[in-house]
Design a protein that fits this description.
With 93 residues, the chain is an alpha+beta fold. The chain is built from three helices and six strands, in the order αββββββαα. It has one domain. The protein is 25% helix and 39% strand. The longest helix has 9 residues.
Length: 93
């Protein structure tokens, strides 16, 4: 099961509209700003009903998040693949 989940998270797709940009895996979506910095996340299939929240960074280091008690591993994985340090979320587990 873990190998299947990791394989699914590896299938990361960049999407963009006129007003929004995001990276989408089969399970999680991470929204980014114009510079490519993550702003928030939600469940890809269920939207905010499946879990959502905000992400705050100091440079490339996560300093806070909201919306969930523990940041989902899929969100952490996407942000790390984008080059962001997610140690803060890992410390809170």
């Amino acid at each position: 099961m873990t190998d299947l989940r990791e394989a699914a998270e590896a299938a990361l797709v960049y999407k963009e509209t006129l007003t929004m940009r995001w990276y989408e895996s089969p399970e999680w979506t991470v929204f980014i700003d114009e510079e490519g910095d993550p702003l928030g996340f939600e469940h890809t299939q269920y939207g905010d009903e499946g879990g959502s929240g905000g992400l705050w960074f100091d440079g490339t280091h996560l300093v806070d998040y909201d919306g969930v008690c523990d940041l989902p591993k899929g969100v952490i994985s996407i942000c790390e693949r984008l080059g962001f340090n997610m140690d803060y979320a890992k410390e809170n587990k």
